[in-house]
From TrEMBL:
<dbReference type="Pfam" id="PF01547">
    <property type="entry name" value="SBP_bac_1"/>
</dbReference>
<dbReference type="InterPro" id="IPR006059">
    <property type="entry name" value="SBP"/>
</dbReference>
<protein>
    <submittedName>
        <fullName>Multiple sugar transport system substrate-binding protein</fullName>
    </submittedName>
</protein>
<keyword id="KW-0762">Sugar transport</keyword>
<keyword id="KW-0813">Transport</keyword>
<dbReference type="InterPro" id="IPR050490">
    <property type="entry name" value="Bact_solute-bd_prot1"/>
</dbReference>
């Protein structure tokens, strides 16, 4: 949801949503997934900016220059393994660069909504600070990040980063940040329940019609089992409605971001599908107004067949709710017209000196942008008994992507074949970020989804029309 790809550490009930601003496990591990195709989906190419950065290349950090930088989003003490990995990475980095001192700053969540905006406005952020992808454009527009364009030409894998991710950190032909992780939405399903319902767990549904049919069969198992669940409260219903709209080829706002676009055939299709599963098929159960905290334990206890999810839900279901890795599969979004993506990264305090920016980029290259090191040190994560093999994050293209995949495969400790459908993806899928003013829009759309799921006689036409008027007002006031 707000800044949907926010990733922090060991959060029991979070996924790629923005409501709680505490995001995915930093240990999410990836296959070379459909997001490798994101390169074809960027709204603009990074080539021109990359050429400009090379032309404006400046000298690297002098190894005799002593530099100290503060870096945000160190894992909290409660996440012992992840914090140890971070601290060990800092030690290894400082051995390579003895002139650079990393001063780690922990926080939970990393981008705390209670303090983030105030710290930005007051210029109190770390030299290298953590951001959600959906916040980057506003930060750039407000002049709250340093231009790093001329500093990145020496980053080894810069040219192989997903263009769509880099574009998020660009404005006016300049670069203001670097990505850390990414995610896309898919369909998480219970393989065990699929088998019990006579369905093939290696052939998950690919359309919403198939989801409806499979959910009906799973619900017929009885014993309180629900075939399909969806969110409809806490802004999470609006967030999932957005993902479902993208999967149908629809949109939430017009391309210029000035008008609502969900009162459309695709919007009607999303709601009518939910209406049918809830009231005609009875495959969604009687309990509604669900949020992620309700759905994850349902999946872990074997009482739920399917729900929309990012890959990070799988280790959460296992670690926090005693589920079993082998019970879960992951498939692409039904209908395959599009999927919601998110992620996170780092930007630089504009008060930072050139040497601090250079040092910070060296750290980000080591920790976030190098296969086999930092967040991609899958060998160490396997030793630390962290999950290795989930599809995502995947921020590279080309040779670095292949190298990272090979290292991941060598150290995988998960049933990766269960995620094959998701990992293989479809090169034609459009990868879409959240709409502008996402949280306000989601609050409106929550009411639409919850009405459909709690009122048998809900009027879809009226609901969408009224929501359209409200969202148009939100967008007009944001200009």
């Amino acid at each position: 949801m707000r800044g949907s790809g926010r990733m922090v550490f060991v959060v029991p009930i979070q996924e790629g949503k923005s409501l709680m601003k505490a995001r995915h496990l930093a240990v999410l591990v990836a296959g070379v997934t459909a997001l490798a195709n994101v390169a074809a989906c960027g709204t603009s190419s990074s080539n021109d900016n990359d050429k400009g950065s090379k032309a404006a290349n400046i000298a690297p950090l002098d190894p005799n220059t002593k530099v100290s930088i503060t870096v945000g989003c160190q894992p909290p003490k409660s996440s012992k393994v992840l914090r140890t990995e971070w601290n060990n990475d800092v030690t290894a980095f400082q051995q390579l660069h003895p002139n650079i001192t990393i001063v780690s700053k922990d926080a939970f969540p990393c981008e705390d909504p209670k303090t983030f905006t105030a710290k930005l406005a007051g210029g109190q952020m770390e030299n290298v600070y953590y951001v959600y992808l959906t916040d980057a454009k506003n930060i750039i527009a407000n002049g709250q990040a340093a231009d790093i364009t001329k500093y990145v030409s020496g980053v080894k894998n810069y040219g192989s980063l997903q263009p769509q991710l880099l574009n998020v950190f660009k404005g006016g032909g300049k670069l203001y940040g670097l990505p850390k992780t990414n995610y896309s939405m898919g369909l998480l399903y219970n393989r065990k329940l699929f088998q019990q319902a006579g369905l093939n767990p290696d052939q998950p549904p690919t359309t919403w019609a198939e989801v409806q049919a499979d959910a009906k069969k799973i619900s017929a198992l009885g014993n309180g089992i629900v075939g399909y669940a969806d969110y409809s409260a806490g802004n999470q219903g609006g967030w999932h409605f957005t993902a479902e709209m993208y999967s149908q080829g629809g949109d939430i706002v017009t391309p210029d971001g000035k008008k609502a676009a969900f009162n459309s055939p695709q919007g009607h299709a999303v709601l009518q599908n939910l209406q049918q599963m809830r009231w005609t098929d009875n495959s969604m159960g009687a309990k509604q107004l669900l949020q992620i905290a309700d759905v994850q334990p349902m999946m872990a206890s074997g009482k739920l067949g399917m729900y929309l999810s990012a890959p990070d839900n799988i280790p959460t279901i296992k670690d926090q709710f005693q589920g079993k890795f082998e019970d879960y599969g992951l498939a692409p979004m039904p209908n395959g017209q599009g999927t919601l993506i998110g992620g996170d990264g780092y930007m630089f305090n504009p008060k930072s000196s050139p040497d601090q920016i250079k040092a910070g980029i060296l750290w980000l290259e080591f920790e976030n942008l190098t296969p086999g090191k930092g967040q991609f040190d899958w060998a160490q994560k396997k030793i630390d008994k962290q999950p290795v093999g989930l599809p995502q994050p995947n921020i590279f293209t080309g040779a670095p992507a292949a190298e990272e995949l090979q290292i991941r495969k060598q150290n995988s400790n998960l049933p990766v074949d269960n995620y094959k459908a998701f990992a293989d993806g479809d090169p034609k899928v459009k990868y879409r970020l959240e709409p502008p003013q996402a949280q306000q829009i989601y609050a409106v759309l929550d009411g639409v989804v919850s009405s459909v799921l709690t009122n048998r006689n809900a009027d879809v036409n009226s609901l969408l029309s009224k929501a359209e008027t409200k969202v148009n007002g939100i967008l007009a006031n944001a200009e």
